[in-house]
């Protein structure tokens, strides 16, 4: 048994920026796919224990904005009846949450816009992170972003943690029930801490399997918050 939800929307952001938002929201790496000159980003991942196939399509490049479609297919095949019923019942709400920042548009716009402009934006999107081909490059990108004012932050009912660069060192500070503070004078020690800190978050949709280091660091990078 399956269920499908789809939204067509406009957004001024480039395709790679929409990709980044969805990767952060769904905690999965979306792979770019070129088919018949069109660009999409795709992944199949278990969310809440059920396979979801995700496809973000870049439909058209208008003068001032872009047209996109997002389709997610939920598969409940082989799931016990109570789990299947829960998945089917909750799926529309999850999809609404995942797409809350997107403004719907008519599907009729999918074939409009300039082909040349479309191709230029595709090339720009594919090149935007073309230099991030390995773990070392991703780690250095994260470290430099932190030095430029970006940060990591978590929050829960007992408090939370802020991770940032301050006073010429990397620092992790808890608030709430814990007031622990850790200072990392060495990059290697800090990176090891960061990988461990976000292990559950980056692995939650693949457990009990594990992500590759490249995928894990890519998702950690997605969790960076821009400078205030």
List the helices and strands and how they pair.
Layout: E1 2-11, H1 15-26, E2 31-35, E3 38-47, E4 50-61, E5 66-75, H2 81-98, E6 103-104, H3 115-128, H4 135-147, E7 152-156, E8 159-166, E9 169-176, E10 181-184, H5 187-197, H6 199-203, H7 213-222
Antiparallel strand pairs: 1-5, 1-6, 2-3, 3-4, 4-5, 7-8, 8-9, 9-10
Helix pairs in contact: 4-7
Number of E-state strands: 10
* CA-atom Rg in angstroms: 19 Å
Percent of residues in beta strands: 25-35%
Number of helices: 7
C-alpha end-to-end distance: 45 Å
Helical coverage, percent range: 25-40%
CATH class (first level) name of the largest domain: Alpha Beta
Could you say which structural class the secondary elements and strand pairing correspond to?
alpha+beta
Work out the count of structural domains: 2
Low-confidence stretches: none
Instruction: Categorize the overall geometry.
Output: globular
Task: Report on the biggest sheet.
Answer: 6 strands, antiparallel
Order of helices and strands: EHEEEEHEHHEEEEHHH
Q: Identify the CATH architecture of the largest domain.
A: 2-Layer Sandwich
- For the largest beta sheet, what order do the strands appear in spatially? 2-3-4-5-1-6
Oligomer: single chain
Rounded mean pLDDT is 92
Q: Which fold does the CATH topology of the largest domain refer to?
A: TBP-like
């Amino acid at each position: 048994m399956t269920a499908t939800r789809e939204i067509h929307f406009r957004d001024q952001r480039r395709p790679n920026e929409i990709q980044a938002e969805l990767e952060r929201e769904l905690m999965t790496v979306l792979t770019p796919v070129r088919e018949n000159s069109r660009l999409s980003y795709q992944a199949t991942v278990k969310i809440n224990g059920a396979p979801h196939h995700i496809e973000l399509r870049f439909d058209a490049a208008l003068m001032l904005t872009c047209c996109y479609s997002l389709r997610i297919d939920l598969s409940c095949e082989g799931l016990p009846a109570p789990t299947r019923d829960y998945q089917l019942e909750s799926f529309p709400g999850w999809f609404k949450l995942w797409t809350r920042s997107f403004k719907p548009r008519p599907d009729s716009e999918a074939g409009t816009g300039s082909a040349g402009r479309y191709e230029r934006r595709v090339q720009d999107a594919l090149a935007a992170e073309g230099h991030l081909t390995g773990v070392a490059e991703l780690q250095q990108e994260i470290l430099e972003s932190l030095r430029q004012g970006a940060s990591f932050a978590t929050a829960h009912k007992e408090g939370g943690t802020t991770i940032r660069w301050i006073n010429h060192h990397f620092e992790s500070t808890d608030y709430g029930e814990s007031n622990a503070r850790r200072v990392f004078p060495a990059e290697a020690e800090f990176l090891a801490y960061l990988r461990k800190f976000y292990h559950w978050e980056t692995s939650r949709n693949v457990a009990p399997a594990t992500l590759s280091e490249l995928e894990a660091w890519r998702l950690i990078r997605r969790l960076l918050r821009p400078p205030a």
